[in-house]
């Protein structure tokens, strides 16, 4: 792999994901100059200070001039309007990629707004992250040994896919490809449903306690007695509400399917309790424990 792979990288949305991409490529010595485009001046100053970017963009036309690669790393609900804004200023050879957690919506937005640029558009999703947001949480090691899924369009050129693959590999990621619908169906099960469950469990337990959110927990508040199991299950309820609003709406069909299927599992378990069915309960828990053991052994 050549050492410097890109002269000018533009990151639109320099938060956890965009900032980590920048820091990882810098660490690997693969990029010369990084320009950040942001919404909050404060976060962009932080990105400069952390060394994630070299320059805060003054305007899109000058940011995009001579750009080799543009990464869209804002919440997915913003992606369509950003594509429409950048489209007039993209140079023919500039590769555009993204990091959105959903892919069918991003692909549809590209068809609407980047129609003349599809051969250089490479949709991507790093399956790595945290419940933290903003560039302060960015980490050069975030993508190490993590999955990165590409969902190229039929128009995307093999050369553009190769270049984006090399960039993510330089960040330490394991790159694979699938189509956008398959991606969204899989991620609904392993990422979107778990986040919804964590948010709802947190609300369910805390709303039953009815205290002022600024006051310390009351002596009889159930949350005072929540242990590490509750903490592990709800870690991801600390995630960005804006980001998860956009993900849930973008992938509503696959997510709704998962919610219905999960609801059936809950109903079945509720019936086992009602009929005092200890064998069925133990069977459910055993098969879950086995499935988790197999997953951890095989995921490497
Ligand atoms: N957090 C994760 O675990 C994770 C993992 C994989 C992919 N993703 C995806 O990556 C993307 C970014 O997520 P994140 O965790 O880095 O979020 P983040 O909140 O840390 O960063 C997003 C940044 O985008 C900026 N922004 C928002 N709208 C903008 C606009 N219109 N123009 C310019 N900047 C704008 C925000 O100010 C923020 O700095 C999302 O699409 C998300 O679905 C997140
Ligand atoms: O580790 C976390 O906190 C995450 O939520 C990361 C996580 C996930 O695994 O669900 C969240 C959303 C992304 O699109 C990819 C990764």
Task: Give a nutshell description of this structure.
The protein has helices at 16-27, 41-49, 60-64, 79-86, 104-113, 158-170, 180-207, 228-234, 241-250, 252-274, 278-299; strands at 6-12, 31-37, 55-56, 69-72, 95-98, 121-122, 124-127, 147-150, 174-177. With 300 residues, the protein is an alpha/beta fold. It folds into two domains: 6-178, Rossmann fold (3-Layer(aba) Sandwich); 183-299, 6-phosphogluconate dehydrogenase C-terminal like domain (6-phosphogluconate dehydrogenase C-terminal fold).
What descriptors fit this protein?
300 residues, 49% helix, 6-phosphogluconate dehydrogenase C-terminal fold, 3-stranded mixed sheet, PDH_N, 2 domains, Preph/Arog_dehydrog, Rossmann fold, alpha/beta, binds nicotinamide-adenine-dinucleotide
Low-confidence stretches: none
What do we call the CATH topology of the largest domain? Rossmann fold
Proportion of beta-strand residues: 5-15%
Which CATH C-level class of the largest domain is it?
Alpha Beta
List the bound ligands. nicotinamide-adenine-dinucleotide, prephenic acid
**H-E string:** EHEHEHEHEHEEEHEHHHHH
**Helical amount:** 40-55%
What is the CA–CA distance across the termini? 25 Å
CATH superfamily of the largest domain: NAD(P)-binding Rossmann-like Domain
**Spatial strand order of the main sheet:** 3-2-1-4-5-6
Total strands: the figure is 9
Question: Can you tell me the overall shape?
Answer: globular
The largest β sheet comes out as:
6 strands, parallel
Number of domains: 2
Radius of gyration: 22 Å
Instruction: Look at the structure and give the mean pLDDT.
Output: 95
Structural class of the helices, strands and pairings?
Answer: alpha/beta
Annotated CATH architecture of the largest domain: 3-Layer(aba) Sandwich
